[in-house]
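Researcher: I'm comparing several assemblies side by side, and this is the next one on my list. It has 569 residues spread over two chains. Same procedure as the others: predict the full complex and return the structure.
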Amino acid sequence: MDAVTILCPTGHLGFTPFEKASFLAGCDHGPDFIVADSGSCDIGPYPLGADSQASPPAWQRHDLEAMLLAARRLGVPMIVGSASDTGTDRGVEQFAAMIRDIAAEHGLAPFRLATIKSEQTREFLLGQLAAGTPIKGLDGRADADEVLLARTDRIVAVMDAAPIAAALRDGAEVVIAGRASDCALFAAPLLNAGLSPATAYYAGKLMECASFCCEPFMGKESILGQIAEDDIRITALHPGQRCTPASLAGHAMYERRNPFYEHVVSGTLDMRHCRYEAVDERTARASGAAFIPAPQPMVKLEGAGKVGERRLAVVGIRDPYVIENIDAAIAWARARLSERFGAPDQAGWAVHYHLFGRNGVMGELEAAPPAHPHELGIVVETVCRDAGKAEEVCALAARNLFYARLPEVKGTAGAAALMADEILVGKPGYEWTLNHVIPVRDACDLFRTEFHLVDGRARRAA
Amino acid sequence: MLRNRTTLRDLASTIRSKNAGVDHITFDIIFKDPAAFEKVRDSGVLSPKTVAALYGIPLDRITDFVVFEPANAVKFTIRRRRPSGSPGESDVFGSQQYAPLFGIEVA
């Protein structure tokens, strides 16, 4: 059997616009599939919790348009997963609407679009709990209970290749999927081509971040994968990049706790015995993955919930005496806040002083903060259920540094500089509430596929 | 007396940190060549114990520690105190937590 070829232009569609030159060079190789992931947990809990996108629509459209035009010109399927950063139903519908608009704008001949939704309701999960189905915590988290679900505003389930492979078998020419394991987008067509889950998921794992698996470091450049059973060849398409055994192996450990295992719904990819070799100047080959099917399919759930409204203020300190005694100044400020608003836990407010110049970047992980920084930039972050109160708490938390009472302060006109006497409105604070798994009977169980005929010519004529 | 001190910064081509899911930050130290990798691996300066001490955290927050020969790399992962992006957190991608590794001396 000939190798299956996959072109991947970006590791996060829309996050910044991808580079077209290497993508078009990849199209010249006549790939069998064009595949890109569009989501990530890295952007924090806000986009999922508030169900908003992290990428500008113009950049998402740029990437989708380049992929769709190439895929329709070449007559090959295009697969996009974790639509619009979060993979919520909003993201799937938004990308499907963009696909229709692009098709109409370019008068594209009819094609079959599949959308696969993965959002879950709190009520459904409460029902599962009530029926005795455990929602198990990952990474040391406790299992979910009603209280945790009550704190969760939005939930997506993470699909593996099964629903995508099924949509392709049913004739989908464009797949817009909700939240999906990045590697599953690539694995789906490879499984349909008869390759083993080990090869299919491993190829996806290697390709999911596009040019990040090449050297030197460049984002948003395309790569080409040629995949045969236990023989995965990855080629850099930017003329200044190479895919080498070291760059490919180095990427295998990127963004993961452990370089040896990748978990998907239907099993675990075992990369302990993988081998990496050079093929030519721009191409490396990987082999040796194994796949351990799960005795019980488990679907990962991601959920985020709102903590409160956020307000921010920026304060600077230059007085060396105040800098030396900043902990005492903050303690004094906190005491005054508690006097006025009540104890933070009971009264439902929180203030975080981020001390840039001391440990603002690393926080508690900063083992050696400088004793005498030249100046301190302090970001005062306040979270409170009520927006008006958040504003008030933030103003007092910042101004209390200005009025900080320290016994030997000489600058009696103000112990801090206010960058502006201004409270900045932040996005509401959210937290990741669910990082859990739920057992299912079938890997497709929680996912909803619909087919749509998109006829760009009809819409343009209309 | 001054002496030349070789540090991880001299020997590694990549030293990085990044989220591994929402509850962990993972650190990759990738060496320029097998000789540098083997020198550091065999020196004992990188271990769960040494990195826990460097970051001032208890040993049980180091959830993974792997010597990854195909990439000439050492990799370890720590559990975050709070999930990434929670209010009060300072590094939503976990991408600037590697700096203390630079100064580790390799005998």
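Model: For your comparison table: The longest strand of chain B covers residues 12-19.
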